[in-house]
DNA sequence: AGTTCAACCTGAAAGC
DNA sequence: TGCTTTCAGGTTGAAC
């Protein structure tokens, strides 16, 4: 699934492709895609009609589109201005919140382009231009209209991500060392640090020369800083490359794959040589998925914790 | 209260 | 060839 860099690529595409436009048609083809919208698919569609998309935001792997106030659909630009003026009030406004899950895509495509096999929701716009389509093979992702524009209340539990301006490094270091779990489990816990998934967790741990089973309480402050810096470096580089695409399940809003796969050091490289020490990269089962490490650069701790 | 794990899905690839 | 098993970028809710 898309992790922070991939979701940020999509957010930028939405900013270019749908901000400032008026939604004038919503079709939900699979109710599971809007299961987080408690009032159901019909209410989901009705709540969006006539509203202007004002902003495209992201925290970790969640993204959301700010919506003009209901009933302010008359003129697109006017609505944008009204929403911007009201954005100062805490908790005000509504948003279209989305998560891509393991296989979700948000595509901005011409209305006459053929429907994708796993098309779940279609959004048409008043200008008759490109549509927004939510496509999701496995339906782990989803969309909902929620309250809150700055940070929707429903994702208040998600921690800031390491590329966010408000990420508090010292708070993260303290919170990490207070945990009683394995280091990779902590990295994947979106309430501690968000945006990191299985790929970038393994890449950051390799770059910081730390093993995933290190008990968090034994991680020094310096090691925690090193790990965070590694995560920032690898995700920034991945973003510059357009993200990581193993297959066609992750693509940008334009349908373009990312190129970072070729820069991965350990993830998906079982048996290949570590670029630092030439030892063969090892793959192990971990939390019903896989972890990739260099057995030499990242020795297993004597006291390991999964 | 903090931590862990099964469950939610579809499809491609590997195994037999 | 075809059937079965395994695996895939994630999150939640409930159990411990």
Notes on the structure:
- With 306 residues, the protein is of the alpha+beta class.
- It folds into two domains: 4-155, N-terminal domain of MutM-like DNA repair proteins, CATH 3.20.190.10; 169-293, Helicase, Ruva Protein, domain 3 (Orthogonal Bundle).
- The protein is built from seven helices and ten strands.
- The protein has helices at residues 4-17, 41-48, 76-86, 169-178, 183-188, 198-207, 221-240; strands spanning 23-28, 53-59, 62-67, 94-99, 104-109, 119-125, 131-136, 142-147, 282-286, 289-293.
- Strands 1-6-7-5 form a four-stranded antiparallel sheet. The protein has a four-stranded antiparallel sheet with strand order 2-3-4-8, with helices on both faces. Strands 9-10 form a two-stranded antiparallel sheet.
- β2 (53-59) and β3 form a beta hairpin.
- The longest helix is centred in the C-terminal third of the chain and has 20 residues, at 221-240.
- It is globular and about 60 Å long.
- The relative contact order is 0.14.
- Residues 73-90 have low confidence and may be disordered.
